[in-house]
Amino acid sequence: MPFRDYLQTRLRPAMEHRRVQLYAILFLIDCLLLFCSFSIGGALNLGNLPSPRAMQIMQLVLPIFIVIAAYNRVYSIRALDELRYAIGRLIIAVGVSAMLFLVMTFYVRSSDDFARSTFSISILTALLSMIAVRIVAHLMIKRHFGGRVRNVLIIEDGGPHIDFPNADRVAAEPDVVENAHADPSTLDMIGRAMRNMDRVIVTCPVERRKFWTAIMRAAGVHGEVVSESLQELGALALERDHGFSFVVVSAGPLGLRARLIKRAIDLGLTIPALVLLSPLLLVIALLIKLEDGGPVFFVQPRMGQGNCMFDMLKFRSMRVEKLDSRGARSTARNDDRITRVGKFIRRTSLDELPQLLNVLRSEMSLVGPRPHALGSLANEKLFWEIDRDYWQRHSLKPGLTGLAQIRGYRGATETETHLTNRLRADLEYIRTWTPLSDFKIMFATVRVLVHPNAY
Length: 455
Known about the structure:
Blueprint (H helix, E strand, L loop, with lengths): L2 H7 L5 H32 L5 H20 L5 H5 L1 H26 L4 H33 L6 E5 L11 E4 L2 H6 L4 H11 L4 E5 L5 H11 L3 E3 L2 H6 L3 E5 L2 E5 L7 H37 L4 E7 L5 E7 L24 H8 L7 H6 L4 E3 L9 E2 L2 E2 H4 L12 E3 L1 H4 L9 H16 L3 H11 L10
Parallel strand pairs: 1-2, 1-3, 3-4, 9-12
Antiparallel strand pairs: 5-6, 7-8, 10-11
Helix pairs in contact: 1-8, 2-3, 2-6, 3-5, 5-6, 11-12
């Protein structure tokens, strides 16, 4: 709707005042719940209410909790907006407060059996009651405020349409844009529309971005301008350094801690697996050697993390004279190149076991996008000719197994869909990686070790 109609029908009060009130109410309720929980804990141990000892403990815990909760954003916009985030922050705050209290009492040697039992009962009661209060608070916010904890205004001025839940929308008429800088009444109208807004988002053509930037800065609001070019780049953030603005378009899928965790999982499972499977590896190597006297391993260059190539190891399953080092020909069912031993180890996925050595050398991971042969084709096209996002799958180490494999996307890539299905699964894995997802994929891989498309 136009600015004038918006001012007459939907001018909203400042949500910031409501949020401060909600923060204060939740803070006071949390303090009261701590008092009640420690009173209950003392009563269960001594039978008297209130217990002086329990109150002493509460007086020590309360200031610790207040500091940790404030630092941990227990009382924040996101905590009001997202129930899962609110509960997670609360659990961390209560847990850290409890640990700090226990450390303090350990060093001053003031704890006894009564204090420990009282403390345990009281902390658990406080945490559960605080979680219950958050659930009730989110239900009330949803019922009375429509789930809205911040005011967002979208100004549409000829730019791309954007979807934003619970946002107000106004249309900028041409006369508004033309007269704003020279007409105080027009500026007043725009300013009153932006008043009490936590975010103002303008979607407009490139040539009018400077105009709206000046307007929002003068209005003193948190202003944002939609950029289609940055959307196409997939921009992550904007940084300023030495007087220049830089668009951050890539930050790596995993941080240092996540990479260390993933590497620890790889080594913690790979080393024992190599030790336990060494007899089986020797038997397979011996059978391959006895069948035709050729090399045990098939070594093929594959694209790894960071688009850097490495030599991937497999047990050789094809005849020596028919090896395909570039992988231009996908393996087919009843392929005449496969040996008798090769047919068995491919069907049972045992031919992939030497890649544990690639994991040990940090060239691969146990779980990740499967590395493809450089000459692999789908519908007579190289994989990267089918989808321009193909190279993004190399932002993580390739894996022995992956999300695509447990979803059944393996075997020959006869059509472009075969490739795009695998690519979408790989990119989903990269976006949503967690240690738990790796374990889930490894367990699920057991079900697909013997698969109809494993040939």
